[in-house]
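Subgroup meeting minutes
Present: P.N., E.W., G.H.
Scribe: E.W.

1. P.N. recapped why we're keeping a running log of single-chain structure predictions: easier to compare across weeks, and new members can see raw inputs and outputs side by side.
2. G.H. added today's entry (327 aa).
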Amino acid sequence: LVLSCKKREVIENNYNQTDILIGWYDSILKPSIQNCVAYAGSLETSLKEENLKASELEWQSISIAWRGVEPFIIKDLRNSFLAFRIDNWPVDTSDIKEILSSTELIDEDFVNSLPSDNVGFYAIEYLVFSKHLEKNKKYYQLLKLLGKVLRTDFLKTEKIISDSEEDFKTATGYTLSSTIGQVLNQAPQVCEEALRYKISIPIGYYEYVSLDDKHLEAWRSKTSHTIIFHTLKNLRNVFYGLGESEGLNDFLIAADKKDIVDTADEYFAEAEDLFNELNTPLFGRLVENKEVLTELRLSFKKIRSLLMISVAPTLGFTVSFSDSDGD
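Output recorded in log:
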């Protein structure tokens, strides 16, 4: 897989941050959340029709589209906690089994009252892709309501993103409240989640865990590798911009810091090459992929450190995200 073609370099003396913000919003964030809403609508329809094969495909489309939203979970969207409710991993399967076996009435109010690890698209993944669950009336009832609530949460997320468009595109400057400052705090967290939860814990990198396929995010759908790829792809899009849109690399070049861009080129190319070495899907193949995944973990660490230690300070931004010890 190829992440993207590197666009032409743009050198400017007086760099306008707004060019990056418009590109991020129009080329990455807005299309991503619109796709999430559209796929969630199709997923809701397939669940209503009890067409699980179609639901599997729509679920995977949602998961991919969501990776374009993750780098921009900032400001009002972060404060809404909607992202946490939409994308909470792992889910509490014991709770969900208890709901399925109980005699309690399941309605929309009931689902809305459930904790975050009982809802969202990973709860739907558990129900849709699990082979051992009895596909009875209550099973489909819960699935349909989860699908409806997920679509509603995506619509709420889309509204927050739409309502904040002007602020997103005009909040320039070098404070933590500026859009670039916020994204430069969020992007390292996305890297950290990738290297720690999507790679390190499943391969047993830390002393307190053992290698276990079932620690892979989205192991039931066997799409763990797809999530890693699209996480990396969208981090790259944030740095370089998408298509002809400008990115952080243009800002750095304007600041006469092409050496940092050259380092980013090296790190992203290395991560792409390592991903392409993986034998996928990862579920059932962690042992044979462990060495490459360990190196890929290091690539995410390099990208995270580059953003925090080189990119942000060089451009005059402060990063408050503190988990930079490389665990």
